[in-house]
From TrEMBL:
Source lineage: Bacteria, Bacillati, Bacillota, Bacilli, Lactobacillales
InterPro entries recorded: AAA+_ATPase (IPR003593), ABC1_TM_dom (IPR011527), ABC1_TM_sf (IPR036640), ABC_transporter-like_ATP-bd (IPR003439), ABC_transporter-like_CS (IPR017871), P-loop_NTPase (IPR027417), Type_1_exporter (IPR039421)
Protein name: ABC transporter ATP-binding protein/permease
Keywords from the UniProt entry: ATP-binding, Membrane, Nucleotide-binding, Transmembrane, Transmembrane helix, Transport
GO cellular component assignments: plasma membrane
Compartment(s): Cell membrane
Boundaries of every ABC transmembrane type-1 domain copy: 1-122
């Protein structure tokens, strides 16, 4: 019965996940006219859940019937043997009736215990799934002796850094790189070249396979994760917003921020005009994942968060690649303001947005190919120039 309940919870989880994915991606489904496929997927998941439920009822039915039959057989044998000994005169009619009543009194607790045993697997299966999730340990955690850091200047060094996934696929191979405080460095390269991985290693979303990364001369593995990540701000292309108010999402950058701090962040992120158009201003509910906001508005909220967080190190992960040109220019101004005075790493998609960078680093699966300013690299007629010219020819 425990297995039957476990199957029910597993299939119910997949069923709910499928519904959530279908609802979240409804516009994609409609744009491809794939409603029949989604219905087919829904029916499949529904049938899997239904089968596990039927199997549970079957097991429970057999168990209940077996227990019911066992109890009734006890009653039957009590009557037969009681009548037999009464007829033989070994017990009186009163003793016989008393025995039957006493037997029934004992049977009732047995029935209750049996009902509890039947309900136990259901509760245990759910509790088991809960404890399995709660007992999962993060793959990356603080090392023994890790210390909390604060007020980092932002000198970043990659020292002979290599990284490979668990299946052995190598992404980075013996990377050596140093970034000075306040420097803006852009990473460019084809998809899969490792530029995003290079930046994800800094906040320890992944651990290096070999080598080390240091900030201000300290190995990041010797820092506590919480303190390290508080020193790094990340603005991504796909901004995640919580289903609350605009104010709550901005304040997520600093949960102790005052109203003055929030207003200042709004101003720096060029969000004032957007807020003026909102029916309730900062207290407007923005919906699930910020569905009521445009892509550019979401980016400005993310930038406002970073102004509140005020980290010394900033990672911009293709933050404007999905925006139209006019919106991109406005967002780029906000990003430039945000990057001012911070060590900034930019994962670039549109090369026109990184011409202002102090350094541009061309990354490939062979490592760092080129390193310099836009003017220097373009004049070299190497990999960067080919990438730049290819993008502007299209």
């Amino acid at each position: 019965m425990t297995k039957a309940n476990t199957d029910i919870y597993d299939n119910l989880g997949e069923f709910n996940a499928g519904i959530e994915a279908s609802v979240s991606g409804i516009r994609v489904t409609q744009s491809f006219a794939n409603e029949p496929f989604e219905r087919k997927q829904f029916n499949y998941l529904n049938q899997m859940y239904r089968k596990s439920k039927l199997y549970f009822y079957k097991v429970m039915g057999v168990s209940s019937a077996y227990n019911y039959l066992l109890i009734r057989l006890i009653n039957l044998f009590s009557l037969i043997f009681g009548a037999y000994y009464t007829i033989k005169g070994e017990i009186t009619e009163g003793q016989f009736v008393g025995f039957i009543l006493l037997a029934n009194i004992f049977i009732r607790p047995i029935e209750k215990v049996n009902n509890m045993i039947e309900s136990y697997p259901k509760g245990f299966a759910g509790f088991k799934r809960f404890t399995e999730e709660m007992d999962k340990q993060p793959s990356i955690k603080d090392l023994p002796g890790a210390v909390a850091v604060s007020h980092l200047e932002g000198t970043i060094a990659y020292k002979d850094v290599s990284f490979a996934y668990e299946d052995g696929t190598k992404v980075l191979d013996h990377i050596n790189l140093k970034i000075q405080p306040g420097e803006t460095v852009a990473f460019v390269g084809q998809s899969g070249s490792g530029k995003t991985t290079l930046c994800n290693l800094l906040p320890r979303f992944y651990e290096v396979s070999s080598g080390e990364i240091t900030i201000d001369g300290r190995n990041i593995q010797q820092m506590t994760l919480a303190s390290l990540r508080k020193q790094i701000g990340i603005v991504q292309q796909d901004v995640f917003l919580f289903p609350g108010t605009l104010r709550e999402n901005i304040a997520y950058g600093n949960l102790n921020a005052t109203e003055i701090d929030i207003q200042q962040a709004v101003k720096l992120a060029h969000l004032e005009h957007v807020i003026q158009l909102m029916p309730d201003g900062l207290d407007t509910i923005i919906g699930e994942r910020g569905v009521k906001l445009s892509g550019g508005q979401k980016q400005r909220v993310a930038i406002a968060r970073m102004f509140l967080k005020n980290p010394p190190i900033l990672i911009l992960d293709e933050a404007t690649s999905a925006l139209d040109t006019e919106t991109e220019q406005v967002i780029q101004e906000s990003l430039n303001s945000l990057a001012d005075g911070r060590t900034t790493l930019i994962i670039a998609h549109r090369l026109a947005t990184i011409k202002h960078a102090d350094r541009i680093i061309v990354v490939s699966d062979q490592g760092i190919l080129e390193d310099g300013t836009h003017e220097t690299l373009y004049a070299q007629r190497g990999h960067y120039r080919r990438l730049y010219d290819a993008q502007f020819r299209t």
